[in-house]
UniProtKB/TrEMBL annotation:
InterPro entries: MoCofactor_Util/Proc (IPR052698), XdhC_CoxI (IPR003777), XdhC_Rossmann_dom (IPR027051)
Domain XdhC- CoxI: 11-78
Protein name, entry field: Xanthine dehydrogenase
Pfam family membership, one: XdhC_CoxI
Domain XdhC Rossmann, first and last residues per copy: 208-354
């Protein structure tokens, strides 16, 4: 939605009808995850993507048709044995796509959703798959309707649904784009009262905090922003910690790292998605900040330095009273073994480790592995999906 909003909003405010396609389910090696969107404007222009190119032309035609008719459609695209290079996903996957009309009449909730998403406030959009009605859940309360007050109430009261978009959502709430289940569960691919829906949660961007105003930090900040993180660079030395030196960062803070991190944690701005990269190379900076970091339950703590530096750092942390179980959470030396040396190559190595840990990747070359290419498919999910579509 973030990708298509800048185009959708002007069309909406102009009163023009656009077509919006949303991936609601995937199977096998589908190139885009559930929640991926593509919008087609009244002039036929395209923003976003649902398949990385495999079926974009067919989805474009569907969007044009639905924008004109106002009748939502659900379609499935996948590779077939006799038409591998026709309309299908030649990568071997299958996607289910909801196509709906977007205009002030069909999607009156769009400006409220856009305001929340663009401001980084949590929001969850629930869409009926049969008629594309919407219920938007925000901190200010629900907006819109699914066409039945009892259904609206049931969805709004689902345990955990309103929390999916929040900064402090638990690890069990990830991925943040899911189908919703029965009352009391967020297990996906189920229905409420016979009505099937798709819930898309929009959370503030996860944070990356880079400690140390170095060339490696500048490269890491750039690749962190590329990955979608809200990036902060922090260093106690004002001559180095300047916005001009870190154009890829959202914020540059002059403060002692441990003091800044403790203050952010106390303010509730650190969560289980936060990644921390300690690139200071100086014990007087990195040891105090790591004493704070290892107790926060963040997603990643990467620390730069040689193996000798790492051993010395561990000894200092133990002397400071840090428990062994907390030290196990450190990625030090940080990054994957890619053989690179430049700051940019090192940043790629760091980013690769973060992505691999986030999705449970092995870090191996794909040509050396077998099984699914895309992570995140649960055991039994395919059967559950197929059963849901047969009902």
């Amino acid at each position: 939605m973030r990708d298509v909003l800048p185009a959708l909003l002007p069309w909406w405010h102009a009163g023009a009808a656009a077509g919006l396609a949303t991936v609601t389910a995937t199977w096998s090696s589908a190139p885009r995850a559930a929640g991926a969107m593509m919008a087609v404007g009244p002039d036929g222009s395209v923003v976003g993507s649902v398949s990385g190119g495999c079926v974009e032309a067919a989805v474009h035609d569907l969007c044009v048709s639905v924008a004109a008719s106002g009748v939502p459609r659900t379609a499935r695209f996948g590779v077939s044995d006799d038409e591998a290079f026709g309309v299908g996903l030649t990568c071997g996957g299958t996607i289910s796509v909801l196509v709906e009309r977007v205009c002030p009449v069909s999607f009156p909730e769009l400006p409220v959703l856009a305001s929340a998403v663009l401001a980084g406030r949590p929001a969850t959009l629930v869409t009926r798959l049969d008629d594309a009605r919407h219920l938007l859940l925000t901190d200010d309360g629900p907006v819109g309707t699914l066409g039945d007050p009892s259904l609206d109430a049931a969805v709004a009261n689902i345990s955990g649904l309103q929390r999916i978009g929040k900064v402090n959502a638990s690890a069990s709430d990830i991925p943040s784009l899911q189908r919703i289940g029965e009352v009391g569960a967020i297990s996906g691919l189920r229905r409420i009262g016979g009505v099937e829906m798709f819930a898309a949660a929009f959370r503030p961007a996860a944070r990356m905090i880079v400690f140390g105003a170095t060339d490696h930090a500048a490269a890491t900040a750039r690749i962190g922003a590329f990955l979608g993180y809200h990036v902060t660079v922090c260093d106690a030395r004002p001559v180095f910690a300047t916005a001009a030196r870190f154009p890829g960062a959202d914020a540059v803070v002059v403060d002692w790292p441990h003091r800044y991190l403790a203050r952010e944690a106390a303010a509730g701005r650190i969560d289980g998605r936060t990644v921390l990269c300690v690139l200071t190379h100086d014990p007087k900076f990195d040891v105090p900040v790591l004493e704070v970091a290892v107790r926060l339950g963040v997603a990643y703590i990467g620390v730069m330095g040689s193996r000798r530096t790492h051993r010395d750092r561990l000894a200092r942390l133990r002397a400071a009273g840090v428990a062994e179980v907390d030290l196990e959470g450190l990625s030090s030396p940080l990054g994957l073994d890619l053989g690179g040396r430049t700051p940019e190559e090192t940043a790629v190595s760091i980013a690769a480790e973060i992505v691999a840990l986030r999705h449970g990747g092995s870090g191996l070359r794909l040509s050396e592995t077998d099984g699914p290419i895309h992570a995140g498919v649960l055991v039994g999910e395919r059967d559950t999906v197929e059963a849901a579509h047969r009902e």
